[in-house]
Amino acid sequence: MTEPLVVLKDVNKHFGDLHVLKDIDMEIGKGEVVVVIGPSGSGKSTLCRAINRLETIESGTITIDGKTLPEEGKALAQLRADVGMVFQSFNLFAHKTILDNITLGPIKVRKQKKDEAEKRGMELLERVGVAQQAQKYPAQLSGGQQQRVAIARSLAMNPKVMLFDEPTSALDPEMINEVLDVMVGLARDGMTMIVVTHEMGFARKAANRVVFMADGQIVEQNTPEEFFTNPTSARAQDFLAKILTH
């Protein structure tokens, strides 16, 4: 594995009495694409959200590019700027144009000049296939287009790692592939990615490693080829039997 970019050590998290992350140890190398799968309630999304501190953790450490996640304040904002996040819901600003949505972060956080940010913004919209929508507002775009804009918005910050929390689960079936195609392209370009998803096709096509979670723990992890053809744990076998027969 290349040198680790994201390292989780002994990470624990509770919601009340519920132990949602149990002693999680995981390393993600630079340029690695890790797909996290598992049944609902297994802790996948919480794991994803803990990596940029949208969820706090009670014990353990998370480091990104050698730096421990700060508690709060400016240092946390700085670190968050290095971690792109794409959610189920697109979270675009409804009153701003698509291009303004993309350039807001670079101008405000990275202190880029407006014309530079707009030039880069247009390149990214071109890359995700929605450049012709730049002057429209989010409500004028389909869900698939909005999610591709959300990906471009994350990329505009030049993140070191991208987190995807079920990015296609709110989309109509015919729009899922247009978003996954963009993600496959990012993976090919060497972007470090942690993807929580139910899209097994994406896991097979783009992942370097599949991490299977159940009950707040990492039960097993392997290459997609090995995991899908030869899962070793009963939990993973049961999970795959349920989803792959439909």
TrEMBL record:
Keyword Disulfide bond attached: no
GO molecular function: ATP binding; ATP hydrolysis activity; ATPase-coupled polar amino acid-transporter activity
Catalytic activity line of the entry: a polar amino acid(out) + ATP + H2O = a polar amino acid(in) + ADP + phosphate + H(+)
Taxonomic superkingdom: Bacteria
Keyword Lipoprotein found: no
Membrane topology designation: Peripheral membrane protein
Major localisation: membrane
InterPro entries noted in UniProt: AAA+_ATPase, ABC_ATPase_HisP-typ, ABC_transporter-like_ATP-bd, ABC_transporter-like_CS, MetN_ABC_transporter-like, P-loop_NTPase
Enzyme Commission number(s) of this protein: 7.4.2.1
Keyword entries, A-Z: Amino-acid transport, ATP-binding, Cell membrane, Membrane, Nucleotide-binding, Transport
Broad enzyme group: translocase
ABC transporter domain residues: 6-240
GO cellular component: plasma membrane
Localization of this protein: Cell membrane
Family as reported in the entry's similarity comment: Belongs to the ABC transporter superfamily.
Protein name: ABC-type polar-amino-acid transporter
